[in-house]
Design a protein that fits this description.
Layout (H helix, E strand, L loop, with lengths): L1 E5 L6 H12 L2 E4 H10 L3 H10 L7 H12 L8 E4 L5 H10 L8 E6 L2 H8 L2 E4 L5 E3 L18 E2 L6 H25 L2 E5 L4 H12 L1
Parallel strand pairs: 1-3, 1-4, 2-3, 4-8
Antiparallel strand pairs: 5-6, 5-7
Helix pairs in contact: 1-8, 2-3, 2-4, 4-5, 6-7
Length: 212
């Protein structure tokens, strides 16, 4: 099974990736994992990606594609894979399909559908202790006393990139970037949408159903 998980930040696809990979008996990886691995090992692709990142530029599609393809082509992944966060662009999607043409292409693309307001609540709820850096969340793991760290008692703060207005902008950028990719896989016929606003176990059931 060759499975792609798509969805905006905060949709929960990362939480489900290893679970669904275990069910179908393959490995899972995220595009972020591959970037960090290549950067930490100072691979040729990692150094190339770093040269763009240090200039504040986007890493070109070709570099990202090569990182993913190298991972896919490892012998231990010959039985399939679950990839989270790739492809993000139409060029990446077409390159992936072309690479997998002889093995039947991608079996299933699952899009994690969550209303924007739910995503904003999830992503903008994070709080960090200003001293010990312990993370909290207004919805999922709130402190016992408002704005006060359970561990050291110091004040909690919200990072700039977790502010609701910044979160909304991130979501809009994601939608603008990936809409052509979603349309592409819908036309291919292998994309399925699931309601990822439900409880984790319900999302898991829906995911298992569309994959099986």
């Amino acid at each position: 099974m060759k499975i792609i998980l798509m969805g905006p930040p905060g949709s929960g696809k990362g939480t489900q990736a290893s679970h669904i990979a275990g069910i179908v008996g393959v490995d899972s990886v995220s595009s972020g994992d591959l970037f960090r691995d290549n950067l930490s090992k100072n691979t040729e692709l990692g150094l190339l990606a770093k040269s763009f990142m240090e200039k504040g530029e986007y890493v070109p599609d070709d570099v990202t594609i090569d990182m993913v393809m190298n991972w896919i082509e490892e012998p231990k992944h010959s039985a399939g894979f679950v990839i989270d966060g790739f492809p993000r662009t139409l060029k990446q999607a077409k390159a992936l399909d072309e690479k997998l043409l002889e093995s039947g292409g991608v079996d299933r693309v699952v899009f994690f559908d969550v209303p924007e307001e739910d995503l904003v609540r999830r992503l903008s709820g994070r709080l960090i202790c200003s001293s010990c850096q312990t993370p909290f969340h207004k919805m999922f793991s709130p402190p016992k006393e408002e704005n006060c760290c359970d561990n050291c008692g110091d004040v909690l703060y919200q990072r700039e990139d977790d502010r609701p207005d910044v979160v909304r902008n991130r979501l809009h950028v994601y939608t603008r970037e990936t809409e052509p990719v979603v349309d592409y896989f819908e036309k291919v016929g292998n994309l399925r949408r699931i309601d990822a606003s439900l409880a984790i176990n319900k999302v898991r059931e829906s995911l298992e159903e569309v994959v099986r």
